[in-house]
Amino acid sequence: MRVIVQKNGGKDHVSTATVDCRLLPSTDEGVLSAIADTPLVKLTRVLPDAKFDLYAKLEFLNPGGSTKDRPARSIIRHGMDTGMIREGTVIVESSSGNMGIGLAQVCAYYGLRFICVVDPKTTSQNIRLLEAYGAEVDLVATPDEETGEYLHARIARVRSILEKTENSFCPNQYSNLYNARAHRRTMQEVVTVLGGKVDYVFCATSTCGTIRGCAEYLKDNDMKTRVYAVDAVGSVIFGGEKAKRLIPGHGAALRPELFQEGMAHECIKVTDLDCIEGCRRLAKREAILAGGSSGAVLMAVERVKNEIERGATCVVIFPDRGERYLDTIYSDKWVEEHFGDVAHLWHSASLRNG
Question: Model-level pTM?
Answer without folding.
Answer: 0.88
